Each structure stands twice: as structure tokens, then as C-alpha cells.
Amino acid sequence: GENVEQHPSTLSVQEGDSAVIKCTYSDSASNYFPWYKQELGKRPQLIIDIRSNVGEKKDQRIAVTLNKTAKHFSLHITETQPEDSAVYFCAATPKAAGNKLTFGGGTRVLVKP
Amino acid sequence: NAGVTQTPKFQVLKTGQSMTLQCAQDMNHEYMSWYRQDPGMGLRLIHYSVGAGITDQGEVPNGYNVSRSTTEDFPLRLLSAAPSQTSVYFCASSYATGTGVDFGQGTRLTVV
Prior knowledge:
The complex is a heterodimer.
Chain A: E1 4-7, E2 10-14, E3 19-25, E4 30-38, E5 45-51, E6 56-59, E7 62-67, E8 72-77, E9 86-94, E10 102-103, E11 107-112
Parallel strand pairs in A: 2-11
Antiparallel strand pairs in A: 1-3, 3-8, 4-5, 4-9, 6-7, 7-8, 9-10, 9-11
Chain B: E1 4-7, E2 10-13, E3 19-25, E4 31-37, E5 43-51, E6 54-57, E7 64-66, E8 76-78, E9 87-94, E10 102-103, E11 107-111
């Protein structure tokens, strides 16, 4: 089955700096890669996703890049703000798997004012 | 729409007890799934369903049963609770493959 590794497990940045989270996956059949943000005590919320036919996607201050050859994808947050402090999860799934998401272990991001 | 609704929000069980975690969605989503979340381990898939009457096992199915008699409901049954099942459980749904899933608010389960 799919295996997703996520790094780093914790990330502390100064407000206004950029944050980068990296994930690798093992199954070459995976073609959908969502990112979720989870605030303390809350449910995970989808913030951005990318499909395997696209190399990069951007939504305001967040962007995701995908390298299918190397089987890794990354989340980039620019101009970080205190409200970006949360745990971020990457995930992967093959389209044929019925939306069975395999998640990375999560990255706790702390934005220091 | 209420989205994905889970009940209860909190539950304490004694070892060996059984219970059912309820999950309902009002978005007419075909795909539903159950995940458990443990510290440092992300979310792990327990069971999932691609439509009414169809279920399959995920990564960590042992000790859990599911059924999908309607599109809306996807209950998770703990057969004989064990301390290792102490976790936060999330139900999720989506309308298609290759799309983001919507999570319920979670059930925090403690087994003593």
C-alpha cells in the first residue's frame, strides 16, 4: 500500500517568513495530493490540493508543488501569520482507490510574532 | 447543509465494552470513511465505503466493524473496547474519488 513520509515534524518560523513542508510517497499510482490544516481541538480542513497532471498550484499565500519523478510534493506558505499556526497534514491516494487517503504524520507549525 | 455529523463528541468506555460511533452526512456523498488520529501518527484509515452496501477495510481495521445501509449513515462499531483504541475518531465523506474529503468534528474516545 501507499506510504507517506512528512518532514519536518515541527517547524518554528518568525512572522512574515516562509514555511516549507515536504512529503514523499511510495505508490507511483497515487495521483491526488491534498493538504489539510488542523487547529487545536478542531477537525482537519482542506486548504489546497494538487493532481498528478499539474506541477504547481497556488492559492494566495499557499502553494503546492509536485515532482512525480521523485515522488515528492511540498507545501509552501509565504508571509506567515500567527493564524497559520496549526498542524498540517499531507496525504496521497490513487484515483482508483475510492478516496482512501494515506496521511503523513503531520507538521506542527508555530509562527512567532 | 450540516455537513458530516458525528456523535458522541466524547466517550469513556471500560475495557471490554462495545459501542457505536455514529456518522451522518447530508451532502449525498457516495464515499465515506473512518480514520483514527493518534499523536505523531497522522490519521490512519480504519474502514471505508464507496456506496451503500459496499464497505472495505483500511489500514487498521482490527477491532472495528462498519456497515453502510444508507448513503447518509456510516456507523463504526467497537466490538470489545481495548485501551489501544483510545484515540480521536474522524468520519469523512466525499462526492468522488480524487477530491478532498470533509471531516466530521471528531469523537474523543478513552478506554480505561
